[in-house]
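Kindly inspect this one:
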Amino acid sequence: MKPMKHVLLLVTMFAVALCAPAFAAGKSIVLDGSTTVGPIAKSFAAYFMKKYGVKVTVSESGSGNGAKSLINKTCDIASMSRAMKPQELAAARQKGVSPVQHTVALDGIAMVVHPGNPVRTLTKAQIADIYKGRVTNWNQVGGPNSRIVVIQRESNSGTQEAFKELIMGKSAQISKTAETQASNGAIKNRVSSTRSAIGFVGLGFVDRSVKPVAVNGVLPSAASVKSGKYQVSRPLYFYTNGQPAGNVKKFIDLSKTPDGKRMVAELGFVVK
């Protein structure tokens, strides 16, 4: 290689190195779990990588899979939109894992319809009847004469389980005619494009493309969730194996800082 080309190559390599993320060697944090908690986890990750130079990887495979990842020791933090179940805790103990729960934020599960749907409020009983398949037309609950398209989440979703517990009762079964979507975003997109649909999403996913419906006369909002007036709400969690330390503790504790609280609020969730 000619001397000038050799110098140019070295300069180019140096410039690329300067542009690459300055991640500290051997330091990384892996999160897996809830799509509801996903926006918080990703926002925290971007902040943490920039401030501390620690690589943070966020996967959104559902709360159930987040619990499995923690149990199998393939993640440092499980993000979950429900509490771990007794059988998950038992499985963790068998693997030598000691799950510790950390509340990162509060969330309301918003019932959403198409903006063109005139229905503005439903009772918990009416929502339960819609999801059980007992109410199948919007005209049965004060809406237009059109068949209700019922949208639910997949079985490993923490939001699905929280919805069933808060609205229907744990043992209640959702109608087999309900359509399943894989994430909050997918439900929002389906409802926004389907005039007769109804679905449920985390509060942080509500935007102008869908219309939130009042439940028992109360609209979902940060204020109504924090006050307890909106009854379809739940905490959002990070789980660690034992008490966190080092960078994992710094990441978990971010939710307690002014910057962390600002990110939670800006994403539409509720500061605990």
